[in-house]
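Supplementary notes for students who missed Thursday's class. We covered one full example, reproduced here. Read the sequence, then the structure, then the short commentary at the end.
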Amino acid sequence: MSRKDMRATDELRPIRFIPDIIPSAAGSVEIQWGNTHVLCSIILENQTVRFREGTGLGWLTAEYSMHPASTPQRKPRYSNHQDGRSVEIQRLIGRSLRAVMDFEALGEKCIYVDCEVLQADGGTRTASITGSYVALAIAVEKWLRSGVLDKNPLQDSLAAVSVGIIDDEVRLDLPYEEDSRAMVDMNIVMTGNGRFVEIQGTGEGRAFTEEEQASLMALAKQGLAQIREYQEKAIKEYCYEMDHCEQ
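Structure (token representation):
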């Protein structure tokens, strides 16, 4: 079966990281992942959350929202409460990033991660996690250079990707057209050293076998290895520019 965008079954959509979208943030990146675009920003507060006070440990929390024009039909903003999906996704983003943090190295500070979906075409949660890591790595580099932090609180890299079974075919990186009709849908979050942070797998149209799960996981790991290369390249290029500007 061929895909509408003519990609191979094991091929990622194009991924691009645009840094410094918000100059007032410590780190900010717009990740353009196919037709899904997410703005990720990082802000540091010099005090930790209440339940960490006096422990010497910091914290990281995340918020996720969708711009009203991010989907073909206007998505309303929720002024008094968030929809359940957004709450689920922002908790996932926070959990994922906390998995690679050393909060003792951070000290009693709190990192706020904000993700705003500007355009949605499937994979907004995986793009948010992948883009937020790049924004956070850039912010940490700035904090270390400026003396805001003495130690690097990032212990590992982090990325996420979707896989699924569409028309009985295992595919990597699902756009909305595929995600909306997937028989099996799975999101994988993994650290750079190969540890899983989250595996979200659901039989949407039918149950799936252990062999199919193994194929999905293998394809996800292949895609995540490529994504880590893109992330590392974006971070290194940004740090090179910082070095150039400081000279």
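Commentary. The longest helix spans residues 210-246. The radius of gyration is 18 Å. If anything here is unclear, bring it to office hours.
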